[in-house]
Amino acid sequence: MGSEAALLLWVVMVAGVVVGGQSKFMVYNTSHTIVTGKLNVHLVPHTHDDVGWLKTVDQYYVGSNNSIQGACVQNVLDSLIPALLADKNRKFIYVEQAFFQRWWRDQSQAMQLVVKQLVSSGQLEFINGAMSMHDEAATHYIDMIDQTTLGHRFIKEEFNVTPRIGWQIDPFGHSAVQAYLLGAEVGFDSFFYGRIDYQDRAKRKNEKSLEVVWRGSKSLGSSSQIFAGAFPQNYEPPSGFYFEVNDASPVVQDDPDLFDYNVQERVDDFVAAAISQANITRTNHIMWTMGTDFKYQYAHTWFRQLDKLIHYVNLDGRVNALYSSPSIYTDAKYATNESWPLKTDDFFPYADRDNAYWTGYFTSRPALKRYVRIMSGYYLAARQLEFFKGRSKSTNTDSLGDALAIAQHHDAVTGTEKQHVANDYAKRLSIGYKEAEQLVSSSLACLVEPASRREKPTTKFQQCPLLNVSYCPASEVHLSEGKSLIVVIYNSLGWKREDVVRIPVFNEDVTVHDSEGNEIESQLVPLVDAYVSLRNYHVKAYLGHTPTQTPKYWLVFAVSIPPIGFSSYTISSAKKPGSSSSRSSVYTFNTSETSTVEVGQGNLKLTFSTEQEKLTNYVNSRSLVKETVKQSYGFYTGYNGSSDKVPQNSGAYIFRPNGTFLIKPEEVSSTIVRGPIIDEVHQHINSWIYQITRLHKGKEHVEVEYIVGPIPINDGTGKEVVTQITTAVDNNKRFYTDSNGRDFIKRIRDYRADWDLNVNQPVAGNYYPINLGIYMQDDKKEFSVLVDRSVGGSSILDGQIELMLHRRLLLDDSRGVAEALNETVCVLNDCKGLIIQGKLYFRIDPLGEGAKWRRSYGQEIYSPLLFAFCEQDSDNWINSHRPTFSGIDSSYSLPDNVAIITLQDLDGGKILLRLAHLYEIGEDKDLSVLTNVELKKLFPGKEISKVTETSLSANQERRLMEKKRLVWKVEGPSSENDDSKLSRGGPVDPAALVVELAPMEIRTFIIDLVPNLVSSV
Amino acid sequence: MGSEAALLLWVVMVAGVVVGGQSKFMVYNTSHTIVTGKLNVHLVPHTHDDVGWLKTVDQYYVGSNNSIQGACVQNVLDSLIPALLADKNRKFIYVEQAFFQRWWRDQSQAMQLVVKQLVSSGQLEFINGAMSMHDEAATHYIDMIDQTTLGHRFIKEEFNVTPRIGWQIDPFGHSAVQAYLLGAEVGFDSFFYGRIDYQDRAKRKNEKSLEVVWRGSKSLGSSSQIFAGAFPQNYEPPSGFYFEVNDASPVVQDDPDLFDYNVQERVDDFVAAAISQANITRTNHIMWTMGTDFKYQYAHTWFRQLDKLIHYVNLDGRVNALYSSPSIYTDAKYATNESWPLKTDDFFPYADRDNAYWTGYFTSRPALKRYVRIMSGYYLAARQLEFFKGRSKSTNTDSLGDALAIAQHHDAVTGTEKQHVANDYAKRLSIGYKEAEQLVSSSLACLVEPASRREKPTTKFQQCPLLNVSYCPASEVHLSEGKSLIVVIYNSLGWKREDVVRIPVFNEDVTVHDSEGNEIESQLVPLVDAYVSLRNYHVKAYLGHTPTQTPKYWLVFAVSIPPIGFSSYTISSAKKPGSSSSRSSVYTFNTSETSTVEVGQGNLKLTFSTEQEKLTNYVNSRSLVKETVKQSYGFYTGYNGSSDKVPQNSGAYIFRPNGTFLIKPEEVSSTIVRGPIIDEVHQHINSWIYQITRLHKGKEHVEVEYIVGPIPINDGTGKEVVTQITTAVDNNKRFYTDSNGRDFIKRIRDYRADWDLNVNQPVAGNYYPINLGIYMQDDKKEFSVLVDRSVGGSSILDGQIELMLHRRLLLDDSRGVAEALNETVCVLNDCKGLIIQGKLYFRIDPLGEGAKWRRSYGQEIYSPLLFAFCEQDSDNWINSHRPTFSGIDSSYSLPDNVAIITLQDLDGGKILLRLAHLYEIGEDKDLSVLTNVELKKLFPGKEISKVTETSLSANQERRLMEKKRLVWKVEGPSSENDDSKLSRGGPVDPAALVVELAPMEIRTFIIDLVPNLVSSV
Fold first, then answer.
1. pTM (2 d.p.)
2. Residue ranges, CATH 2.60.40.1360, chain A
3. With a cut of 0.95, is the ipTM above it?
4. Order of strands, edge to edge, in the sheet holding A40-45?
5. Which residues, numbered 1 to 30 in chain A, qualify as contacts with chain B under a Cβ-Cβ cut-off of 8 Å?
6. With contact defined as beta carbons under 8 Å apart, do B927 and B875 qualify?
7. Which residue ranges does chain B devote to CATH 3.20.110.10?
8. How far apart are CA B725 and CA B731, in angstroms?
């Protein structure tokens, strides 16, 4: 007997059929649908299940560690199914796929069949459908796409459905990229969220403009707009309608034989709450989010009350209550043919009340943020190498993909989770990395072998994930013993790439040979004390041992790597004195000396004043930009609001400074390191800030490497450390920050486009999230700063860009995490405050010329070169192996304005390919144009049998998605909203297989390859 | 398709069958049964659902008022069924039928069928099976039997099963009557409980004597013994094994793909806890009570973990874990053939640690305790009248039975519930009373009519439930207008009864005529001011109005009522001066006068010294007892232990006195009221204690009526008011208190038979519950005090009996109720402390002669005469109606040592009859003997077609019950335990229909009557 029969019988059994007799079993009528002409209250049963926050994702799933928070997602899903089976009118939405997938794997086939039927009938609807409900401030758009794709494709594969609705109900502000890219481009019909600025919300409630049409991209305009709704408050039920096990809301007591019968009171409460919401909402449809964090532990408790409310409220008749979903609600809104206010840009920053700007989390846990970003780039590269090798069940990129997906959660990369949970995310990334690293090594091992040996490659590559603290056992070998070190350097970008690389070495006399065997120029830069202690402390902390030997030098050399490919470099001990690397000249001077020092071997030269706080000249002899630039450090003291009437401290979420303090560089020596490839200026800013300003031959930007921490707290106050770079650019309050590393959005200090801003936090209220960079301009120049992870930043003074690099706080900010953001690193039980090491990059260009650097170099920051090392006893490695490789046609290179953001081997001979135009409309005179990519050139030696363009999350055909897209009407004269001049790439001709990309366009394809036509790779 | 199929399918669906594939669905092996030679851990999933405590019974059922306590019994049962269906090895016990019946009525027929199947398969077992888990200290055995019967018969009727196990896991001490009467006599095979004295428990753990054979009755001995087990601690799971939704115990994380896999740790925890318990337990069977108060809100959360524990613990193999029940556990214990320590007497008083004697609740809420007792007697009488009239669906005694059943709960009559819950119990009793009152009135109306008019009786009887505060609208009529007042007085005892009754009247000149129309002697006693204010305040408080007129007198007259029948008395205005009632002589004297006053019109005379604190002589000229008796009042100040290391206040549960304070009578006037029928001595003890000492003509006991309250708290301390009656009886620390109004148990001050008592509370630790009375004796005399409700009492000094009458406390005693026991009565918003009015009765007899009074008068106190009033315009009421009636054969009367404790019309022509021998073995030389009752005489005019003797709770044939009774072995030489001299009544000859009753024996019968053979009644 099929499970359909079982399903049916259980429904009969539970919902019952009153056959008559003594039982006073009550049957509730819950079958109501929309009633035109009445106020329709859409009851949307839901649970909001954080993929980690106070507990880890697995703890939330199995319900362990309940002393921290009583929450068990397994309960939610376990209890949901019988509750839905009991009444076919009941509905539920489920959102977070990281949890759902865990649950799904635990189920019997019989249960899976039942659930499939519930999904197919619409009783259970997947909403949002990503692995996690990602943050929208500190996340990179590539990560957002990847983790959404993981969730969406699972849903498609298991249930053959595509989520229709965006549901970002908890993230702390909302990004333009979320609205247009992860909304419209995913094929969503609407997008709902809970948190917008309190001032904004007040105005929108007043003007009934909580629901809008949001056009998030200037470049894509109405072709990527979406219906978007902010809830009247949070994502919880109206007060008094919480029905979790043991909740205090009054249950509907409708048994006249028991005491406290209260049906009329509860109906009156319901109607009053509905009318109150109707008064701030357009159309006669309102949505009630019936649930909140980790609710429906026992789903029955909610549904029993909702059944009763629907039954009695509709008997009452004043309003119409129905089981609904965001999809049904969206369709109902659409059916009203209403016009909606237009919303552009984004909803940042978010404040939930005076002095409570959630702009601290843009920087919170900077190490975790950096780790996520490194893994993101690595995951992109690893999937390329996985494709070249062919996907394997055993060693693959799946764990890393899962770990990254979870890390995008709005309490993960945000830094707003408890410390043990942050550790859990890091652990997952580490495990995922380890597996991907193995895959990368073995893929490279295959690729370096000649075709004959490819099946059983012998090379064992090592990689160096701790290179950031100068630790690389693979390169730290004594080459004097006749050994060579082979470094295979992989470039995941679609362009040939010229870069300078750095590897720690023991030997003083080494030579570097390129893939052709030619000796190339190299430079030895001494490993300074600041780095040695960084290295030794963290190797001990993370690996449990202290390295016995310390490399004396960074070996620096320039490399050239083909697109989506690698080159190999051989490092060996110098055979003859003259052929070894140049040692850098090192000059140390005291800040008391009054003099200037110029550095830079190429077009860009910087002049440092040795006097503290003196200006630095920035001169580019090519672009003729000349500017005085001053960089400084400072900190804000974390506000202690514990004794205020409405207590508000600075904390993991909230940035609330209590005064600004400039850090004056201490009077200690600075060191100048010079050589043929790089020049560096080392400065001890103070005892806990070390900075290296670095110029590379052939590059026209300044690289600033900083080591910040441990932030001292012995004065009892938390501190939030910023760096300011000050120029004379006359930006008149205006600056630009990226949205999730993609579109730049204009910001104006102390101003909001959507309402008259009441400024109560002149610093915190002007902070914005930065993933790619920030820039400002005047009529001559533009000044850009790029970052290596998400940070918060602003321009608090004209000409100045400020970035928050690190935060260490001693108080909790009362948003639930209940822990002070006080990160430490421990060796055994000796813990000290977290030290952050990072880089930022800046450059000043003539007006109109900055975008090219921001976009192309930004992509290089996101996708750094990938190193794999192996030792070789003899010299002939290069001759016996394939020293260089490109995955694409050797004659081909992607246009400068395009990146392959996904190249992934799907199971079954299908390839997932995403191509991204990197420029916005009008950003660059040459590159902000329609461009194209020849697919055939991307897969040399393989035949493309089919190309299917899909939605961004690759779960439906783009064509069908466009066909069913709801076309929302926008308020106001159509001339104002006309964007018909904007274009998108046209259809892909199946013969030519050329993909057009308009500015900011990302196109996603599933490509069927005929395997191994010619085994050229 | 039958529900069996549905059941089967759901089991398949949930428990699943792994058909192979991607799912890693886990199937746990939970099929383990007992393994000989291993330690067997019997896991007993259970919930303990208080039938009212912090919330009312209905609030607990529907889950309202959750802000007080998150608890919803509906959830428990709703969630239980699918959890049991999911795995046929899972078991659950359900206890409290008040909840189960509420739930059952809500279920569909389909669900009822499923549940019946679960009960029949043993997965769901009813344990205890009474309506509530009654208290064992403040409850009367008749109430215990009634409420157990209600539950057991429902279970029998709906499920055809009989509960096998007593389960009194939470009551605060355990009574002998519970063990033998509500245990063995109900047919239970064992009896489990959680709370015994901490010193006792420590010793028993040490000696492995937590489990015993309990022989509760001296009279019935081993024929009524039961296997009885105290839990090692409370009734909760071992620490760390709580699995309620959101509980903090670590769940078994057995998914190796998730973090924090902990199977071995949890198995180790389990084994350690098992071994620890095994070390204090005989045999290799231990029971774990897997649940606690209101747990299994979502049963799945428990069963999921228990499944895993059973699976993995048994894989581990060190111990054997199994789903079990108290029945299975009992059978396993029995199968070991072990001998057990013998336990006699009871487990009172209960202390859970030093200075924490739960002896306060013996008296807490004395008004509720009295209300329950009044209703209990009324319920007994009302069911008799219901039987005479014939049971009706519309107006019956069911609500009162239900209300009384619930009121026996161990947080109801105990006084340990929150105030609003106490109000709820009172409200239920009041509603139940109202319905029963209507039934009683209409039954009496039928019975007073001649046979011809019986179908449509015209008489409208009124009753006076507020007679205790002198309020009786029915009697407060102006008889001068030619009206007569008819008082029908019903006697529910099986003996003819001579008593003195009191009715408030307006008129001064009234005469009283008996059923034969003869004028009888009567006396008018002035209604004193103390009563007038009591009356006016409480009528205003409870009825909302102030009576316009106040009766001046109590009309007092002696009555004689046939067994199980009534007589009618006519009160009319006196036709001629000489025939009216005697007015009492009233003499008031001041305490400053030095003189003595003698009162008493019969054998008993008391001499009061008018000087305060002077002794009173007690002289019985018949029995020649002469004694000096002193009665005094005092109070204990409630201990404030809030600043102690282990805080322990005196509170609703716990009596912890902080010093004793004698209340010295104030120097005010006392009043002597004398008359032909009663003499009274009125004394203002102080401004809040008023006392009347009353002697009735023809009675040889002293009746003391007290009005205590409001207890003053303006000094900021709570007080517990006691009265002491001091004699010269040389009792040498020994005294006797009843067990639930039935067997008397010897108490020895500062001593326990079962262990060496460490005395830390010399007063509170010597308190015992008293329901019927307390007595002491020396070699000449015995001094007995009977009470009108349950109270706490002791003999703290030799010769003295102390009773706690009232408690008003300002602090909570930290046992969960979280409220101070500070009862008030409010008129509008003006509240004052509760005033208690009550009676106690004392008598001094020659040694060996006290029992007869205690037993027979005790039964009269329990079953007071029932008054029904009607007005009559003419004199001929008696001629036109049946003025007197007896429900039994007019020639018959029950033996003096037997009471009918139940006579109840069951549906379907069956009668429930319970006959109780009232005497213990050896208690009275004449009455402690085998006696008999002629059933035929009890049902005159009806033919008995069948007599079936049943268990006490009338849910199984006694014969079958005896047949399957487990015979437990007792430790020690059999000579010590031999009680073969004890006897019980023999089988009932179906022809003779004579029931033999041995001392203390209660026999229960279902009697089939052939209806209306002769309509003699």
1. 0.94
2. 891-972+981-1016
3. no
4. A285-290, A40-45, A320-323
5. 1, 3, 5-7, 9-10, 12-19, 21-26
6. no
7. 40-357
8. 14
